[in-house]
Prior knowledge:
Blueprint: H1 3-6, E1 10-12, E2 15-21, E3 31-37, E4 40-46, H2 59-62, H3 64-68, E5 78-80, E6 89-91, H4 94-111, E7 116-120, H5 133-141, E8 145-147, H6 153-163, E9 179-183, H7 187-190, H8 192-203, E10 207-211, H9 217-221, E11 224-226, H10 233-246, H11 252-258, E12 259-260, H12 262-269, H13 274-281, H14 285-297, E13 301-305, H15 315-329, E14 338-340, H16 353-357, E15 369-371, H17 375-380, E16 393-397, H18 401-404, H19 408-415, E17 421-426, E18 438-441, E19 450-452, E20 459-463, H20 476-486, H21 498-505, H22 511-517, E21 519-521, E22 541-542, H23 564-569, E23 572-575, H24 591-597, E24 601-604, H25 606-611, E25 619-624, E26 627-635, E27 643-646, E28 682-687
Parallel strand pairs: 7-16, 8-15, 9-10, 9-13, 10-11, 12-22, 13-14, 16-17, 17-18, 23-27, 24-26
Antiparallel strand pairs: 1-2, 2-3, 3-4, 5-6, 5-18, 19-20, 20-21, 23-28, 24-27, 25-26, 25-28
Helix pairs in contact: 4-20, 6-15, 10-13, 10-14, 10-15, 13-14
Amino acid sequence: MSNTTATAAVTAADLQIIRGACPHDCPDTCALKITVQAGRVIKVAGDPDHPPTHGALCTKVSRYPERTYHAERVLTPLKRSGPKGSGQFVAVSWEAALTDIAARLGAIAARDPEAILPYSYAGTMGLLQGESIAARFFHKLGASLLDRTICSSAGGEALAATYGGKLGMHLEHYADSRLILIWGSNSIASNLHFWTFAQQAKRAGAKLVCIDPRRTETAEKCHQHLALLPGTDGALALGLMHELIQHGWLDEDYIARHVDGFEALRDKALAWPPERVAVVCGLSVDEVRGLARDYAQTRPAAIRLNYGVQRVRGGGNAVRLIALLPCLTGAWRQRGGGLLLSASGWFKGARDDAALQRPDLLAGRRPRTLNMATVGDDLLRSASAEFGPRVEALIVYNSNPVAIAPDSAKVVAGFQREDLFTVVLEHFLTDTADHADYVLPATTQLEHLDVHTSYGHTYVLINHPAVAPLGQAKPNTQIFRELAARMGFAEPCFTDSDEQLARQAVPRLDFEQLSQQGWVKLDLPELPFADGGFATPNGRAQAEVPGLGVPDFVPPYESTQSAPALAQRYPLAMISPPARHFLNSSFVNVKSLRSIEGEPLVELHPDDAQVRGISDGVMVRVYNDRGSYLCKATVGARARLGVVNGLGVWWRKLGAAGTNVNELTSQRLTDIGRGPTFYDCLVEVARA
Length: 688
């Protein structure tokens, strides 16, 4: 442990308190206080001094020791001994594993390094254990690049097109709002600390409105729930704009000074009266009018937008439209007014991704880029002039694509190729690890150093290792260092220590302060857009963008309105939000959390269930042209009429028939950002 790390520990008797950070893909990025006794973590709690965390953790992360000390942790390198997908392995030494992996990758790279593909996402959001030495390794190799789109690229690019970056209001300011639209977010399950500020506002008299196809735990706690049809959020936003214009509820001064392209947007909005919006969205005319009136006449009014909105064909346009609403009303002028989807753009001045990831190691090469959302098709494609070489090697870290990627029958078929060399860095034998040629044991958050930014608040956090790595586990950084050495990569950057990497990640911060306090707040304006000042080239919000035009409603690929013939066979729209006690596919194997969730479920409205002869608790088959999924039905108020909710993301091997909800989802991409369309999916449901 370095001197800086040592300062993070406060000793009392035989207890140590170590400062850490939650690594998971959640906007909260909580500051942790980790209690260690006799070299073992006995408790993980939220840091009461960190303003966004204020001492509270979600159920998932409070069980983190159970995950780290899980009896099924992979703690030694494993080599496949059975068929791909069988999960049959034998233990081998690190030396044997890395030597063989380096030889196999070297042989492929000698033919064409673009035949090697990294696959990673947000299994950890850490800057070090995510893309630092790993990125350097693949850049030096000249491997194919990965377009990391699986979660948020449509909304992120749409927000950046509008504001100039992924920027928004301060989390703490929601406590001062008098109206909060919680749009496409089950905040109680996936943004708990925002919810605490919303509750403060509620107690002070604010109105909370949830806009979501599903009657979530959050919707139940709001004053109003608008259960619109999936993929129609853009139409609702246009309807709100229509009413703002028709009733003179605009802040004309703010628009004139700080918004470009409003006249063209105005013409779009005037084509969306409440009557048209109600038909498209499956709402009442009064609901549309009432929401517009509340949003226009309540001050300050805030929107907490989340990424559920953008997982449909028109998700990017929907985000652009919603992001313009506070610009039309001048909501940015007041504390407690505005919008937050992502705050990650605020960290642009604090972090140095280029120093960390070293794209200069490409040395002028421009490898192809493959989209992680279409990995099912890409692994099955042959070499061609258009595609390039066939993918011959896949290195997976911080992700579980066999469970989480769409159209998973194709993903599985790709991973089962005998000629595909697959290496997986993991904590457990996930669905993806079961298909690996080698599984390399990685450390959990309690065992390594990392630095974290956030997309839900504006604090940088550090995570100090609380305990030594269990078994033979190694940090991702160390695994790629050792692999680089065996590949003969001699650049000094491949020997940078984790502490050196941490300092490189946030070079403009006082690293000693960060290390000792555990977190540092960015120095940002109190009301960043009260007088414009957006991050666009001219400082104005953009309603019209070169190459994208003016945002408009883009209907789903699959809905009763946009695909009536398909809807004759598959009349139910399906969304697949995460189960409350899982985070994507993480935590699914933590038994205490899985026992709370029970088993894979699909939620149906009572009327949809009745016409199909389905009763609560029976096994059903959910199916479409892409596949079939066997699970248990739960009938009740969570689902709106015509929509089913397939809760995810369960590991396939824990499902009743070895599949999960992504057997049904599509590899088609969003209008902006090349993102997946998980919630743009028609199905039918029948008794099994």
